[in-house]
Amino acid sequence: MADPPGCCRPCATCLLCLYSCQWITAKKEKRKGLRTTKCDCSWFLFLFCVFLFTLVWLYFAIIILNDFHNFNEFIFRQRKLWLDWSLILLIATAVLITYSAVLLVLALCLQLCGQPLKLHWLHKTLLILTALVVAAAFTGLGIKWAEEWRSARVSLQATGPFLHIGIVGGMTLLAWPLASFIYRTRNTGLKVFLLLVYSAVMIALYLAPLGINSPCIMEENQLPPKPALVGHRGAPMLAPENTLMSLYKAVGCDVQVFETDVMVSADGIPFLMHDEELTRTTNVQAVFPERAALNCTAFNWTDLQQLDAGSWFLERRPFPTVQSLSEDDRDQATIQRIPSLAQALEAAKQSNISIMFDLRPENHSDYQSFVNATLEVIFESGIPPQQVLWLPDGFREQVKQQAPGIQQVYGRKRLPNEKEPLLHVNLPYQDMSSEEIRQYRQDNISVNLYVVNQPWLFSVLWCSGVSSVTTNACQVLKEMKHPIWLLPSSTYLMIWIVVDCASFLAILWAFFLLK
């Protein structure tokens, strides 16, 4: 059979050599009578599956970037090693997807050129390794970070319409090599099978928008107000977390609430600290090396004030934004100390923002005394009680009685037939569907979801009608004046019809042109 139009012999030879790792010219290949066997077809199918598998992992890798700082913190607590693992994840994923994509393109081009698909054993080995690596990544994700499966479900609300267009486009392009293969093969049963499978997939894709449910498919006048911003430990991308500098940076980002964590020192002073150990966010290993592994509640306030709570931020660079800090900000970071709750309350009062905190560790034997010490500091600060949002569940009834003006925030959904209705809930963004958010909004229940860093996720929650979000990236979300995308139903319907019709016509053209 002659080479198809537009497929020159040198190009076919080059493609064959890259795919087969053998310098065999197209003319020699014909003399040798090489052809694509059933085994070769099986390896092509395996290549296609590996490409799709890796492509799905790439999607997951992009989605989990929103939560990757939590993974970095987890690794540090386990190994005492700080590294931005997201960079390694993206580089490794890019290498795997590029390799499998290049091989797939080579195979499709060879098919269009009428050349045999003789995959070299080295490529076969690397493909198997690629599949094993991606499978291991998915397995690890399921074991150690299962909530990210729910993150993927949320992400489909943002990407569903665009994924549909992309997949329809990809399957439409696949019609060309498929048509070429069908017209070349003499196996009638295989022809019928491939046509049936391809037709079934395309029909399913054409009807897929019926099942796409995105909150951002709405009219402009139906868009809820922009969610308020809650600074997660302040503005941790701009300043060391849980410091006064971080609080003031958060104020500059127009946050309405400063979210933090409170511990109580050995001499009864509440202070701001997230980790139970001081090693990640202070220089305790240099100042008190023999006590570095102790719980931070074992230190008295005098000892805690000797620690540097800011230099680690410049040294470890927990976020890429650290590199762009000004010299003044860098100097300010190096003089940060662990703030007391009293200092934080005073700063919040002066800045006219609320403060929301968790009191930890809740399993401590002296937890009730922690609650009492915290309430005493709140009373002495003079901050209006409505500016304090109380998260801890322990001794909540006691807090309600002693400080009825403090706003109670619950880390759970409302229960059926609950006597006292919830007014504020604080949950992971994976735990509430768009329908639940809308229902809570109708019932005047304030919903805060955490931790929301990526604009795509903020856009979905904005369209859903969430009241506020806790974020590390307040400086990014502050600048968003509108969701990333918003489509009226009529516009989306028109796009759906145009894309499906264009795809159908392109497929017909491919089959008739190559006949």
Automatic annotation (TrEMBL):
<keyword id="KW-0472">Membrane</keyword>
<dbReference type="GO" id="GO:0005886">
    <property type="term" value="C:plasma membrane"/>
</dbReference>
<keyword id="KW-0812">Transmembrane</keyword>
<keyword id="KW-1133">Transmembrane helix</keyword>
<dbReference type="InterPro" id="IPR017946">
    <property type="entry name" value="PLC-like_Pdiesterase_TIM-brl"/>
</dbReference>
<feature type="transmembrane region" description="Helical">
    <location>
        <begin position="125"/>
        <end position="143"/>
    </location>
</feature>
<dbReference type="Pfam" id="PF03009">
    <property type="entry name" value="GDPD"/>
</dbReference>
<dbReference type="GO" id="GO:0008889">
    <property type="term" value="F:glycerophosphodiester phosphodiesterase activity"/>
</dbReference>
<feature type="transmembrane region" description="Helical">
    <location>
        <begin position="493"/>
        <end position="514"/>
    </location>
</feature>
<keyword id="KW-0378">Hydrolase</keyword>
<feature type="transmembrane region" description="Helical">
    <location>
        <begin position="85"/>
        <end position="113"/>
    </location>
</feature>
<feature type="transmembrane region" description="Helical">
    <location>
        <begin position="41"/>
        <end position="65"/>
    </location>
</feature>
<feature type="transmembrane region" description="Helical">
    <location>
        <begin position="163"/>
        <end position="183"/>
    </location>
</feature>
<comment type="similarity">
    <text>Belongs to the glycerophosphoryl diester phosphodiesterase family.</text>
</comment>
<dbReference type="GO" id="GO:0006629">
    <property type="term" value="P:lipid metabolic process"/>
</dbReference>
<keyword id="KW-0325">Glycoprotein</keyword>
<protein>
    <submittedName>
        <fullName>GDPD2 inositolphosphodiesterase</fullName>
    </submittedName>
</protein>
<feature type="transmembrane region" description="Helical">
    <location>
        <begin position="192"/>
        <end position="212"/>
    </location>
</feature>
<feature type="domain" description="GP-PDE">
    <location>
        <begin position="227"/>
        <end position="481"/>
    </location>
</feature>
<dbReference type="InterPro" id="IPR030395">
    <property type="entry name" value="GP_PDE_dom"/>
</dbReference>
